[in-house]
# Entry
Amino acid sequence: MTTVHEPRTSPEVGGIGHSVRRKEDDRFIRGAGNYLDDLNLPGMLHMAILRSPVAHARINSIDSSAAMEIEGVLAVVTGEALAAHGLAWMPTLSGDTQAVLATDKVRFQGQEVAAVIATHPYIAHDALSHIDVDYEELEAITSPQQSLATGTLIRDEKEGQTDNVAYTWEAGDQDSTDAAFAAAARVVSLDTHYPRSHPAPLETCGVVADVNSITGQATIYMTSQAPHAIRTVFALVAGLPEEKIRIVTQDIGGGFGNKVPVYPGYVVATAASLLIGKPVKWIESRTENLISTGFARDFHMHAELALDGNNRITAMRADILSDQGAFFSDAQPTQFRAGLFHICTGSYDFPSAHVTAKGAYTNKAPGGVAYRCSFRVTEASYLIERLVDNAAHEVGMDAADFRALNFIREDQFPYLSPTGFVYDSGNYHGAMDKAKEMIGYDAWRARQTEQNSDPDATKLIGIGVASFTEVVGAGPSRQYDILGLKMFDSAELRIHPTGKAILKLGVQTQGQGHETTFAQIVAEELGIPYSDIKVMYGDTDNTPYGLGTYASRSTPVGGAATAVVSRKIRAKAQKLAAHLLEAAEEDLDWEPGKFTVKGTDQSVTIQDVAFAAYTNHPVGMEAGLEGVTYYDPPNMTYPFGTYIVVVEVDTGDGTWKVLEMVAVDDCGVRINPMIVDGQIAGGLTEGFAKANMQWITFDDDGNCIGSNFMDYLVPTAWETPRYQLGETVTPSPHHPIGAKGVGESATVGSPAAFTNAVIDALWSRGVSNIDMPVLPHRVWGALNNVEVSP
Amino acid sequence: MQITVNINGASETRDVEPRRLLVDFIRSDAGLTGTHIGCDTSSCGACTVLLDGRPVKSCTVLAVQADGSEVKTVEGLAEGGELHPVQAAFKEHHGLQCGFCTPGMMLVGSALLEENPDPSEEEVRWAISGNICRCTGYMNIVTAIQAAGGEGS
# Structure
């Protein structure tokens, strides 16, 4: 059912549905945020990392003697030194191994080779140029196709590795899919590359490691989206006792998946602090961030749709070749080697699908992080939405009508997809209808027909549609874990005697506004004003264990934990209220913030009850009013929506601009509509970025093109289009407050809408695909049937 | 060499290396960490401050070039405990998420409004086009700066 949630609480209480202003903003607008680089500890040293200038080489020798002579340099750490402590290699989040500092070979440009520890950051960076490394260059493998064809083994150090294959994987059912294709009236196919991209949060990654050599206490301040998991990984990798490791993450200047993994710099700084006995700070430069940490995407995709004679989809095939870089370090659940790519059947109802995937090692940076994405759902959504659009063109149907014909209907939920997902709820036709109405779809189609039918037209209108289905909120612990750590999440709530509260979370904000929205969930459940609830996170000594924030899991998992712990506390509060009112528990009515004896005006507030929990609790009841919940979700949540973009393509120079865009999102119940809209506007901009300009590529020698913000283009306010946002509300039936998560929907759904719009403009001119980013010279080349450089 | 810079009304006199960047002088010597570093190539604008009233990217200015000048950072935007209209508008219109670009954006916005108290959307977009935000998609930043202008005029 589609409803809009009316707030149940007053604006002062600020429960679900109120666009209360963010509590965290008061410090940010005054320049009083606490970002990692703002931290300076007494006696702190500074680290700089020497990186490989070449993509693939044997290291014959490293001579750091000249660097050691520079005043202020305390140490030069090499792989050899780390190897003596068993720390030259570390596990990745996908169970592969990754070099911390190179010992035998370098395998990508920018790989960590040595680290200087000095008294001042300028001195540390000066010293890097005084380290002499003798590299013997090897063939650079710069594409997965080359990787699978060559005899050069990239991971020759890895026992049992006899080729360059990082993983193979499949999902769905091959036999029924093959049968459906054999019976198809028409097959539509597409080959496309979802290019390598980088999350590039405005704050780079970093660490301040403070290991006390006397007590062994290791306090590690870092930019982490998953502090608790990092603590456990540190304990397992470094052999440090876990009770003596404290990970502290304060304000993060954006994460977008970049700050999920453990990077070599964290390990080296911690080892250096341990050995030297002083705090060590390492802050990445922007170039280091772009060339060495967490890339995303880089999927080469081939896919086919089988259609019957009535233009109904009957099956899908997809075959993926992923470019993994030198180490397989995708941040993804253990069971799923290509993440959740097999959600690629999208919003459509058909019985059969088969997905095969293979990853290849290359001489490029590792990563495979979920960049504002739930484990490869972005690639999946792009593929099906591009494919469906091309199918509509091929059969001569309107793109919206073809989708509506093939959508999963509202009465089919919960819906079992052919690759095994159980979609919780949806109303795809509702979102489509709303988006068409908001943008004036029919009028735009009429204008397009008129303008594009002129054979001399130099400006062509294109209308792009994308109707995405996401899968977020990992996840049920029977299916979802990272390195064995189950993907539940937690909330601990303490109500103080005066009725104020502290909520402690296992998830980790990076700008999403957790201090406000999670307080609103408590406000909704207990009637305590959101402004009276302090929200804490990011300090593993002082918050309950959780797997952190990525893949839109904060609200689906941490938010659910918050609602459940609030309800536990309300149950105890009811007993206390019964005691205070001298009534039976079952004779009490609850409205947010107040218990009333049925049929009377006798009542107590939640604040009265909180005070009584510490001053007047009944005999036999434990004092206090607090609790903790570890929430293991029964299913993922499935946000969805329809985006429609109108573009105008200049046939002369291949540029295109957005004339209008409408985004209708359904993320279930919206806790704070203002914040939800902010997430969507930001996500749409990242989608636009990838469709229009933002990518990382390499030359044939493996040099990274895109190593700074002059080459790696991210949109400014000048290029960024305006958006009109709309909503439908289809609550998640299994989530305690019906919410689904929204941080990534727009980044997942929008790239296909932009590309589809350009292709829609050019289809009648014979163009059926241009890979992202849809750069002007590619458009021009496609229009003029001329091969252009990438 | 010794330099004196007036930062937010307070005089800072220090011996600095000639190569020291203004942003490091502000953050490490003056201890004002509200000015951020995002890119090192003067592309992102996170380090924007006002140098004698004009926005500059302080990662591309040497501290010695600011000798004898007045610098305003985000910490100096509020006066007498009263938020600058741009600060209040950023909160009211949800013009920030992670907060990392926010100081630079607000300083550019405040400088724009000094020159042009009632800028159009296009004028605001052009003015902030040297500053990157990765979270908001800019819409609410533009709205906030325009709203702050409306309040002042």
